[in-house]
C-alpha cells in the first residue's frame, strides 16, 4: 500500500486490491504458458481464476459504493510484479517453475500484510468484510505456493 499521511482511503484500498489482483492474473497467465510442472501449471490457472473473481467482487462493491479507484501514484505492487516478470522471462523449464513459486510466495506474503493493514484502515464496513473474506483465500494461495516449492525442492 502506498505510504501516505494517515490511513489509506477506501479509494486507495480499492486501487491496491486492483493492483494486487492484476499482478496475480498477469503472473498466472505467463506461468500457464511457461511452466513445466503440471501442479505448478494448475496453481497458475487457479491464481488467474481466483484473483479474477476477487477483483470482480471488489469491482462490484466499488460500484455499489460509487467509488472510482484511481491508479496509485506509487504502485509498489506493480513495481515488484515487473521485477518478478523480468526474472521469470530469463528462466526456462524447472528454473522457471521455481522462480514463479518464489515470486508467488513473495507476492502473497506481501498481499496478506497489505490486506491486514487495509482491513484496519477501511472506513466502510462492507469493504472491511470483503477484505476479511479475502485474507484466508490469499493465505491459502501462500501455503499452496510454499507446499509446491518444497515439493519441487526449491526451499522452505
Overall CATH architecture: Up-down Bundle
Find the CATH superfamily: Ferritin, core subunit, four-helix bundle
Give the domain tally. Answer: 1
CATH class: Mainly Alpha
Helix/strand structural class: mainly alpha
Number of strands: 0
State the end-to-end distance.
Answer: 26 Å
Overall average residue pLDDT: 90
Estimate the helix proportion, in percent: over 70%
What CATH calls the topology is Ferritin
In short:
Helices cover 79% and strands 0% of the residues.
What does this molecule look like?
This protein is mostly helical and 156 residues long. It has a single domain (10-66, 79-152), classed as Ferritin (Up-down Bundle), CATH 1.20.1260. The protein has 5 helices and no strands. It has helices at residues 10-34, 38-64, 76-89, 93-121, 125-152. α1 (10-34) packs parallel to α3 and α3 (76-89) runs antiparallel to α4 (93-121). The longest helix has 29 residues, at 93-121. It is elongated. The mean pLDDT is 90.
Topology:
Blueprint: H1 10-34, H2 38-64, H3 76-89, H4 93-121, H5 125-152
Helix pairs in contact: 1-2, 1-3, 1-4, 2-5, 3-4, 4-5
Keywords for this structure?
elongated; Ferritin; 156 residues; mainly alpha; 5 helices
Amino acid at each position: 500500500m502506498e505510504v501516505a499521511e494517515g490511513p489509506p482511503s477506501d479509494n486507495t484500498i480499492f486501487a491496491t486490491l486492483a493492483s494486487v489482483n492484476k499482478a496475480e492474473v498477469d503472473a498466472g497467465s505467463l506461468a500457464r504458458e511457461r511452466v513445466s510442472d503440471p501442479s505448478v501449471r494448475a496453481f497458475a490457472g487457479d491464481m488467474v481464476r481466483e484473483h479474477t473473481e476477487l477483483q470482480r467482487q471488489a469491482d462490484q462493491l466499488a460500484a455499489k459504493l460509487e467509488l472510482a479507484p484511481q491508479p496509485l501514484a506509487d504502485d509498489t505492487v506493480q513495481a515488484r510484479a515487473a521485477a518478478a516478470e523480468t526474472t521469470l522471462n530469463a528462466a526456462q523449464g524447472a528454473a522457471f517453475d521455481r522462480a514463479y513459486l518464489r515470486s508467488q510466495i513473495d507476492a502473497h506474503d506481501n498481499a496478506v500484510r497489505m490486506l491486514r493493514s487495509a482491513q484496519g484502515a477501511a472506513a466502510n464496513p462492507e469493504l472491511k468484510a470483503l477484505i476479511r473474506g479475502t485474507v484466508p483465500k490469499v493465505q491459502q494461495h501462500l501455503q499452496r505456493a510454499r507446499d509446491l516449492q518444497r515439493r519441487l525442492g526449491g526451499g522452505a
